[in-house]
Structure formats: structure tokens, C-alpha cells
Design a protein that fits this description.
Its EC number is 1.1.1.193. The chain folds into three domains: about 170 residues, Cytidine Deaminase, domain 2, CATH 3.40.140; about 250 residues, Dihydrofolate Reductase, subunit A (3-Layer(aba) Sandwich), CATH 3.40.430; about 150 residues, YbiA-like (Tetracycline Repressor, domain 2, Orthogonal Bundle), CATH 1.10.357.40. It is globular, with a radius of gyration of 26 Å. The chain has 20 helices and 22 strands. By secondary structure, the chain is an alpha/beta fold. The chain has a ten-stranded mixed beta sheet. Strands 4-9-8-7-5-6 form a six-stranded mixed beta sheet. A two-stranded antiparallel sheet has the order 2-3. Helix content is about 30%, strand content about 20%.
């Protein structure tokens, strides 16, 4: 089911319209410089800047067609796995008959190791054509093709950047089955992948330039395509930082708890159910030590009776500078979901740290001063796409200043609690002295859930992290940089109408990605480094990851990923319980689930671990890597293309197989890959 806030209105939610005049005077203010300039902007105007498209190898969609409708359907389909597996770039494919406009088949990629949607669609198309005499045809040229393919996002392609060619190969084969056009909602935001698939389809896939269509920036198809992968857009635009969503619930008088600190419950069950679903769309849910001590939350996605709503549960993160956390808390039950505590190394409580680690809690200790920048860098290193912040105002203030938030979900309950200064508010002091300095949310919207109102909006991109912040600090006026940034509104209340839509907010983020890709094409030399780092299975050099979508056949069994096989080999299959664990890992529909089962059972049932596991685990890894890189040609090509460069699994959480947080890990996976590369 599509996420209620993305494309459709959920049951029981009522839309609230914000009216505005057709033309408003909008003030552009350079953040922290105090300069203002004004100009007229029409609400119906198109995006101010032109995205970079590979004009030499594709064309832009024409107005008046129904392409937007089908791209939007692909976006809804791509969002189908949200909450059922860890966040990942979302892909879907819809094939439509060019004359009748009927859907022949459609598919989406489930999880980071799921089968590519283009390959699924190709197989389904073949089945449809072979089973229907009216549709079955022999080889068909693209000039007389009868089918249109719709993709929400350009697929990943490139041997030397990802080891991935399967999506483009499938699309190329579809051409001989009658596909006449490929319509793409948005180009891939990753600077290393952007434009690769489109170029390959034209130069070597047999398609003509006019047969590969990319939606115009301000069309509905492009808007939906950006929205469904907005977390990926932000991650690419900021240089790896996650898309941060700040959620809070408050009373009409602006309090998130009573004067005694009690907050159960500010909002009604309809709002809380929405929050549970939102949590499952993120890599991590974040609170402060105060919230942990006061509320003892579970931070899971669950039903009213406490049962888990989704197969996937995000990590729970507690930020506590002083490590002031209790020995017993519901978050320390890591059988439900993983828990991480980030604190200062100088907390002086080693015994408490050991107690939590023995329970499976990951205690991250930062050297030196505990800062929000260090927290965000840790999240970036873990490769998280989206974080869901449910902290109080004390933590929210430094977080917004550091650029942790991109979007806000504010639930307002129709009740008054009072409490004066003792009752906490959603945001602490972060330096706004006058109302004119307040942060204006963009693309605001509102919905009603039960008796509560949910107000959503985006923070201006000038409050982002990394290169997105640097990008907007250059400023834009009518498509040209001029040193002014759209971060403020006029102090004149008559001009306080939000004309900056969601389309423009996310188009700005995509433009940053496009500029970065163009800059890298012109300036950077990727061969300068003698080291290649890899981690996430959907990022650069993805095929080197054990979580990549490369199934392996070993001893008559098909394993979803090499990670799945490795985790299962830990357990003694001469014991019935060991066999049960192995089968659970074999059936796991994602590598993160397989890894979680293996690690959890290793801690809970050490008696089932193979007695010689420590001495054979490297042999097990060598075996599965050899199977993977000999059974998948594109993955092998990527490995061989690395030459003699040092390979490093850039994992901050694994000091054995990866580089570790301080780059002092053993990097056994990198060593094993380099050994296999030499043998091949």
C-alpha cells in the first residue's frame, strides 16, 4: 500500500486547503547576512532552474500525454515495500499497451537485494505474450513496437561503478518483444550513476534518442518520482547525510508534555497509528536521554494491542552526552529491534556500558566533545537514508542548527495543558531573536486524523548539511546565482503566503545532484586514489557488498545473498534448533533480516554455534565469495576492474570484516576480495 503522505489520502484523513492569491511578492533573504531582495513569482510558473539532462541521448516528455499517469503509478508501486524491509532506493516498472493503454504487467524491487523490477517485468511480459495468441508476436522492431515501459527512476548501470548491468540488459531484450518507448520519471541522483543507463540504452541497447523519455521537471510524473525517493535525493545532495524527519505532538498551547513531564497521550489513536507507520519507513528512530528516562518508550511500529505492524523495525537510537540512562529499559530488548546509544567516551560509566553491550546494545562512544556533527557523521557512515526524530526541544534545537532535519511532522491536539515554563515545548532556543528570523517551512500541508491536525512542511535547503547547504548559499534568482537564498519571508504579514511548493523544494535538491554529477564529469579523476571503499549494496561498488542482490547456489540450495549463506553456516545443523535457525535464514526475504537472525541467535544460543566456527569462518566467506563472483559475470567484472587497488569494507559497525569506526578494523572482507581478485 502506498504511504498515506506520499500519493494518496488515507482513510479518515481530511484535507485542509490553504488558499493564496495567484501572484505574491516573495522576499529572498541571504541567511545570516540580513540582505533582502524582492521579485514577483507566479504560482503557476515552472521551476526556476533547468535540470541537467543528457540531451544528446534522450528527449524530454511532451505535454498532453498520459505519461504522467503511468509514471505516477510506477511511483506508487515502488513504494509498496515501505515498512517491510530496510529503506532503500525504490524502483518499479509498468508496461502498458501503446494503443489500448492497458497494463500488461508491472513489478517493483523488494528490498536492496530484491530482483530488479525490469527483470521481473521482462519475465512477466514474456509470459503474457506466450499465453495470449492475440498478443504473441515474433521479433518486432522498435518502429512498430506496441508497448511502453514506465520507470519511476533511472536504473543503476555501470560495471566499474556498481557491477550492475541487469536492468539495462532486461530493457534491451524487451525491445525485441515490442517495446517502443521507455519513459523515466527522474534520473538517478547519484553522481556516479546519473545518465549511465540512458546512455547505454541508446548507444548499445538499440533504442533511438526519441524512444528514451525523461519527464519534465515540473510535471506530475517527475514530482511523484522525486517524492517517492526523496530520502535518496537528500542523501546524494548532502554528500551522504540522511533525510531527517522531525516529528512531535503538542497541545494547542504548544506543550509536548505536562509540567510533570508526562506525555501519554498528547494525541489520539489515529495520529499514533500514523506515527507507527512513519517509523517503519526510516532506518532509525531517535530520542534523547530525557525521553528515555521519562517515557521508557519502545519506539517500534506496532498495532494498538502491541503486536508489531511491520516485518521491518528500525534501529532505536538514544543520544545522551552524559550517558545518563537506566540499566533497565524496554529499549534494551534487542530481540525486537536493534538499539544504539551514542554518548561521550568520557562518561565514566564503563560498568553500565558493559551491561548494555551484554544485552546486545551498540554503545557508540565519541572521543572529545559530544557534538551533533559527530552524531550526524556517524549516521552518514552507517549509510542511513532516513532518520525519524522523536526527541524533545532540548535535543531538537542543536539538531536543527546542525542540519539534521529536512522535513517536519507536527501533530496538534485540540487540548490545553498549561504548565507554564515547566511544561516542555517542541523546540529549544537556537538563536531566533525576532519573529522575522523564524524558520519558514516550505510546501506546507495539513490533514486531520481523528481530532488532531497534522501539519507538514520542509525546512529551507539552506538549513541542510554538506554540499546541499553550500549549493543554496550561492543563491538563485530566475535561474542564476546571485548570492541570495530563499530562507525567509517578509515581515509584512500580508506577504506570508507559502507559494514555494513541494515540487520546487525537491527540484532544488535534484538540481544539486545534477550539478554535482556535471562537475564530477568535468573535474574529478576517480583513478587518483589507490583505495576503493564500499559498504551499502545500492551505492557505488555495490556488487562488492555481501548484501548485494546476487543470489548464490551452493550445495543445491539457493541463497538470496552471500550474507544469508554466511550467517546460516554459523549454526550446528546436527541439532534440530540449529536446522530451524538455518532454515529461517534461508527463507529470509532480505539480507538485513538474515543478518539480524544470525547475529541475534548467535548471542541468544551460543550453544548452537559450531565449535570450530572461529577457525572456519574465513573459509566459509571465501567459498561464498567465489560462488558469487563466478556465478555473476557483472559482479566479477567489477571486481577485476578494481585492478590492484586496496578494497575496504567501509563499515563503522564491524571491526572484524570491515574497517571499523576509527578505521582500525581488520577489514577481512576486503582482504578476501583482494585474494579472490588475484586468483581470478
Amino acid at each position: 500500500m502506498a504511504h498515506p503522505h506520499v500519493f494518496s489520502r488515507p482513510p479518515g484523513a481530511t484535507m485542509i486547503s490553504f488558499s493564496s492569491s495567484s501572484s505574491k511578492k516573495v522576499v529572498f533573504k541571504c541567511h545570516h547576512r540580513g540582505k533582502r531582495r524582492t521579485r514577483r513569482r507566479e504560482r503557476s510558473s515552472s521551476i526556476r532552474r533547468r535540470l541537467v539532462f543528457p540531451d544528446s541521448v534522450c528527449c524530454v516528455s511532451n505535454d498532453g500525454s498520459d505519461d504522467d499517469e503511468w509514471v505516477e503509478r510506477a511511483c506508487v508501486l515502488a513504494d509498496s515495500s515501505a515498512g517491510e524491509c530496510a529503506p532503500h532506493p525504490k524502483f518499479a516498472c509498468v508496461i502498458v499497451h501503446s494503443k489500448t493503454r492497458d497494463i500488461l504487467c508491472e513489478a517493483f524491487q523488494f528490498g536492496q537485494a530484491g530482483e530488479k523490477c525490469e527483470r521481473q517485468a521482462e519475465r512477466k511480459l514474456r509470459e503474457v505474450l506466450s499465453s495470449s495468441s492475440s498478443l504473441a508476436k515474433k521479433e518486432t522492431t522498435t518502429e512498430t513496437g506496441e508497448y511502453d515501459v514506465y520507470l519511476n527512476m533511472e536504473p543503476v548501470h555501470g560495471i566499474e561503478v556498481s557491477g550492475e548491468t541487469r536492468s539495462v540488459d532486461a530493457l534491451t531484450r524487451m525491445r525485441s518483444r515490442g517495446v517502443r518507448r521507455i519513459v523515466i520519471g527522474t534520473m538517478h541522483p547519484n553522481e556516479k550513476f546519473r545518465g549511465n543507463a540512458i546512455k547505454e540504452l541508446v548507444e548499445r541497447g538499440g533504442f533511438k534518442k526519441e524512444q528514451i523519455v525523461v519527464c519534465k521537471t515540473n510535471t506530475r510524473g517527475a514530482m511523484c518520482a522525486r517524492k517517492v525517493n526523496e530520502a535518496l535525493l537528500y542523501r546524494c545532495a548532502t554528500g551522504g547525510y540522511p533525510h531527517g524527519v522531525y516529528k512531535y505532538a503538542m497541545t494547542l498551547d504548544g506543550k509536548i508534555a505536562s509540567s510533570s513531564g508526562k506525555s501519554k497521550w498528547v494525541t489520539g489513536p489515529e495520529s499514533r497509528e500514523t506515527v507507527f507507520h512513519e517509523r517503519a519507513r526510516s532506518d532509525a528512530v531517535i530520542v534523547g536521554g530525557g525521553t528515555l528516562r521519562t517515557d521508557d518508550p519502545r519506539l517500534t511500529s506496532r498495532n494498538g494491542d502491541g503486536t508489531l505492524t511491520h516485518a521491518y523495525q528500525p534501529a532505536r537510537v538514544v543520544l545522551s552526552r552524559s550517558f545518563d540512562v537506566p540499566e533497565d529499559a524496554r529499549l534494551w530488548d534487542t530481540s525486537v529491534a536493534s538499539t544504539i546509544v551514542m554518548t561521550s567516551a568520557s562518561h565514566g560509566k564503563p560498568a553500565l556500558a558493559k551491561i548494555l553491550r551484554d544485552k546486545g546494545v551498540d554503545v557508540v562512544e565519541f572521543e572529545g566533545e559530544f557534538t551533533m556533527d559527530k552524531v550526524l557523521d556517524e549516521m552518514r557512515q552507517r549509510g542511513w537514508l532516513q532518520t525519524f526524530w522523536e526527541c524533545g526541544g532540548t535535543l531538537a534545537a542543536p539538531a536543527i542548527t546542525a542540519g539534521a532535519f529536512s522535513r517536519v511532522l507536527a501533530f496538534v491536539a485540540p487540548k490545553i495543558v498549561g504548565g507554564g515554563s515547566k511544561a516542555p515545548t517542541p523546540m529549544g532556543d537556537f538563536g531566533c531573536d525576532a519573529m522575522a528570523d523564524a524558520v519558514p517551512l516550505k510546501a506546507t500541508d495539513a490533514k486531520v486524523y481523528g481530532r488532531d491536525v497534522l501539519i507538514t512542511g520542509y525546512l529551507p535547503n539552506a538549513f541542510a548539511k554538506g554540499r546541499l547547504k553550500r549549493f543554496v548559499e550561492g543563491g538563485w534568482m530566475d535561474g542564476k546565482r546571485d548570492g541570495f537564498v530563499d530562507v525567509g519571508e517578509s515581515s509584512d504579514d500580508s506577504e506570508r503566503v507559502d507559494t514555494f511548493g513541494e515540487n520546487e523544494v525537491l527540484a532544488d535538491v535534484e538540481q544539486c545532484c545534477a550539478d554535482e554529477a556535471e562537475s564530477n564529469d568535468n573535474e574529478k579523476d576517480d583513478n587518483a586514489s589507490d583505495e576503493i571503499r564500499f559498504y551499502k549494496s545500492w551505492d557505488t561498488y555495490s556488487a562488492l557488498s555481501n548484501f548485494s542482490a546476487h543470489a548464490v547456489d551452493i550445495d543445491g540450495e539457493n541463497w538470496l545473498t552471500s550474507e544469508s549463506y554466511y550467517q546460516a553456516q554459523k549454526f550446528d545443523d546436527s541439532h534440530p534448533d540449529g536446522v530451524e535457525i538455518k532454515n529461517a535464514i534461508l527463507k529470509a526475504n532480505s539480507p538485513e533480516k538474515a543478518s539480524r537472525i544470525g547475529r541475534l541467535k548467535q548471542r541468544e544460543r551460543p550453544d548452537l554455534l559450531k565449535k570450530d566456527w572461529n577457525s572456519i569462518k574465513i573459509h566459509v566467506m571465501d567459498r561464498v565469495l567465489r560462488a558469487k563472483f563466478t556465478q555473476h559475470r557483472s559482479a566479477q567484472s567489477l571486481l577485476l576492474s578494481t585492478g590492484q587497488k586496496r578494497l575496504v569494507e567501509d563499515s563503522p559497525v564491524d571491526n572484524v570484516w570491515g574497517s571499523g569506526r576509527n578505521n582500525d578494523g581488520k577489514n577481512l572482507l576486503g582482504v578476501a576480495l583482494m585474494k579472490l581478485r588475484d586468483e581470478l
